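Support request from a user on the community tier.

User writes: "When I paste my structure tokens into the form, the page sometimes reloads and wipes my input. The last time it worked, I copied everything first. Here is what I submitted, just in case something in the input itself triggers the reload:"
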């Protein structure tokens, strides 16, 4: 069974510009390009998992999202096995999207759907995101999880499901951690971990 890296979009792969669907305003986060290339070369499927409540809130139409996906694929330069988004929010203003659902993170619905469609081994997969809702969704799906601690998580409401397995500061460092965990005796990370504050927490 293939293994996957599930990737949050805003704040993890690209700079978090709230409710942005303009492809020209998309900017990759520091470390994301190197990180996804390392993970792709290591044989992981790369799958984007993103909440897009701007649809439910009426800020943009769902039809705007394919252009965002296409631009992201172009910028990353590696194959994405999937791009899954949740357009819902229970407090939305667009009636058909204003629902509680099982796909909006921290629920695991998007990951479970991706796993079913791509026959993914969730226990050998990872979810990388920049807030604890990402960690919770990953844990609920049965993945290992990494939190990119870049200041986007502000509430730090911790329960057992919301504690990431590892915390670091960008996607490149997250990739190094995953690959070193996968090959502890043969992988040499591209960074000196002794000089940084990466931490494993569970």
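"...and here is what came back when it finally went through:"
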């Amino acid at each position: 069974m293939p293994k996957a890296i599930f990737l949050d979009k805003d704040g993890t792969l690209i700079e978090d510009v709230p409710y942005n669907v303009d492809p020209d305003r998309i900017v990759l986060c520091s470390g994301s390009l190197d990180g996804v290339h390392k993970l792709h070369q290591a044989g992981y499927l790369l799958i984007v998992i993103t909440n897009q409540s701007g649809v439910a809130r009426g800020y943009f139409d769902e039809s705007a999202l394919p252009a965002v996906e296409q631009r992201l694929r172009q910028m990353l330069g590696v194959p994405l096995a999937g791009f899954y988004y949740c357009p819902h929010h229970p407090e939305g203003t667009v009636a058909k999207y204003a629902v509680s659902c099982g796909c909006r993170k921290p629920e695991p619905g998007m990951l479970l759907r991706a796993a079913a469609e791509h026959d993914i081994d969730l226990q050998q997969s990872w979810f990388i995101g920049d807030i604890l809702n990402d960690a919770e969704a990953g844990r609920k799906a049965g993945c290992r999880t990494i939190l990119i601690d870049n200041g986007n998580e502000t509430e730090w409401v911790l329960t057992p499901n919301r504690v990431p397995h590892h915390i670091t500061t960008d996607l490149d460092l997250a990739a190094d951690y995953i690959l070193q965990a996968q090959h502890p005796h043969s992988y040499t990370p591209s960074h000196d971990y002794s000089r940084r504050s990466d931490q494993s927490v569970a």
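Agent notes: The reload is a front-end session timeout and is unrelated to the input. Confidence is low (pLDDT under 50) at residues 193-197. The first strand starts at residue 4 and ends at 7. Escalated to web team.
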